[in-house]
Amino acid sequence: MRILFLFLCLTTVILALENHADEEVISAEKHIPVHKPRGYKKRQLEDGDELLLSQVVWRHGDRAPTGTYPTDPHKEDAWPNGWGELTQLGMRQQYALGRLLFKRYVNATKPLLKNSYNSKEVYIRSTDVNRTLVSALSNLAGMFENGNRGADYPDSKRWPTNWTPIPIHTLAEKDDPEGNVFAPCPRAEELTKEIYTGAGFQKFVAENQKFLDFVSEKTGKKVIMPEVYMVNDVHYIEKLYNMSQPDWITDDVEIKLRNLSQVSTRFLFGIGDPYVPELIRLRGGTLTD
């Protein structure tokens, strides 16, 4: 039986560890919960099945924080490429993922792709954000490093070793509902407002207002519940890079920030309480169309 269509969603959340070889995909050091879609049932492969198409979706590699709060001593100059940009470790992670994709789809018993890049076989799509574009470039450098000199890239001493230029397609963020979950959508914005003014979210805020006031005092910025993610993100990334942390970031505060960030994000995307299927479809459904 031939598989006419296979949708493979490969979401990578990979953290950087210096002692890993370039061909190893760097695993997350902490458990990351996987939320299985409701009603989803995995199809079991049968003898004689043949893979004809694979759609692989992955996130960007390790990045700098997208910003910070007033009292944070680590400003933008602490990050060589600036706020929100892919780090060198993020580039390594994506290169390693590219090598994994090479092994799975090119250097396989029944390869799906040719050994070198073929424009009729591969289409690469990225959001219009620096870190995702650079992630795509880094990934493809690993996936298609076996190109032929003089055919896939110039036979020139000054040309980067084994680098085959591969086109990456994108759209402006405002015109990209597939890649940008916050692309303009009046109905989605209406539903989000209903969630934030609803009893469930307001109860969640009230139960944690004292902690929000504490965080606001320490950061020098009034922090409302949807912004807890930013504070958690800054602290989490800085800690990965062994940057000093303020005394008020105790173990208990760290856990509280992470938990509130996760719950707040579920409300934002309609997967909390209330569960809002329409919002889920509007924000993420276009990717699976």
> What's the average pLDDT?
88
Report the structural category.
mainly alpha
Q: What is the approximate shape?
A: globular
Give the neighbour order of strands across the main sheet.
1-3
Percent helix among the residues?
Answer: 25-40%
Contiguous uncertain segments of 5+ residues: 1-20
**Helical region count?**
8
> Using only CA atoms, what is the Rg?
22 Å
The number of distinct β-strands equals 4
Structure description:
With 289 residues, the protein is mainly alpha-helical. The protein folds into two domains: 1-170, no CATH class; 186-288, no CATH class. Helix content is 36%, strand content 4%. It is built from eight helices and four strands; from the N terminus they run ββββαααααααα. Helix 1 (88-105) packs across helix 2 and helix 3 (186-197) packs across helix 8 (277-284). It is globular. Pfam families: His_Phos_2. InterPro entries: His_Pase_clade-2, His_PPase_superfam, Histidine_acid_phosphatase. Keywords: Signal. This is Histidine acid phosphatase.
Offer a few descriptive terms.
two-stranded parallel sheet, 2 domains, phosphatase activity, mainly alpha
Map the helices and strands.
Elements: E1 2-3, E2 6-9, E3 50-51, E4 54-57, H1 88-105, H2 130-143, H3 186-197, H4 199-207, H5 209-219, H6 228-240, H7 251-268, H8 277-284
Parallel strand pairs: 1-3, 2-4
Helix pairs in contact: 1-2, 3-8, 6-7
How would you summarize what this structure contains?
The protein is mainly alpha-helical and 289 residues long.
